[in-house]
Amino acid sequence: MGIWEAVAERGTEVRFGAGDVLVRHGEVSRHCYAIRVGEVLVTATSTQGATVVLGRRGPGAVIGELSALDGAPRSATVRAIGDVTAVVLTGVEFESLLRDEPELALAEVRRLSRQFRELTERYSIRGEELRLRIVQLLQTNADESGDPVFRSTREELAGWVGATREAVIRALRELETEGVVILRRGAVELCGRGS
Fold first, then answer.
1. How many whole angstroms separate alpha carbon 74 and alpha carbon 68?
2. Is 91 left (phi over 0), alpha (psi -120 to 50) or beta?
């Protein structure tokens, strides 16, 4: 029996129209969808309330598998881009399918591994970009004012570099550890320049 036959045998076919929500961020439910026809858009909401596109998934993709397996709230929202046909599986059915179909289980592990690596790379690059933006801002300030100390709250600095306060605090701590800046209350000093 092929993988799709095994999926269809265990689950129930469902259809969605354009814009329909398959899973919603934060909801608690233990089922997943195997997409047969059509595409879906996967999004998440940032801490600032912005919608972030995580990707598109099409035929062969399994959506909502993490919550189906661990019962934790959904980490993303998934909407149908156009007409979508999928097979819905409960968490128990999905676990059983993974046990009985080792090729599918291995494909899921590889896919999750790939997604984890992509996210890790994306956010580590963003961290480097953020640190670079902070240093460039501090350098420009020092060049224009002759003062290596940039007086600003972390919130204001976040606005200057286009990031969240939390991301700026993390980046500043990394820069301090690297010896690039000295953190002070209400100020950041760029190292390597005379006062």
1. 9
2. alpha
pLDDT given for residue 194 in this prediction = 41
142 CB contacts (<8 Å, ≥6 apart)?
Answer: 148, 150, 190, 193
Give the burial class of 66: count Cβ atoms within 10 A of its Cβ; 0-12 exposed, 13-18 middle, 19 or more buried.
middle
Which CATH code fits 3-100?
2.60.120.10
Q: Do 149 and 143 form a contact (C-beta atoms < 8 A)?
A: no
Express each pLDDT in 74-111 by its tens digit: 989 999 999 999 999 999 999 999 999 898 889 889 98
Question: Structure tokens of 153?
Answer: 């709250």
Domain range 127-190, CATH class: mainly alpha
pTM for the structure as a whole: 0.62
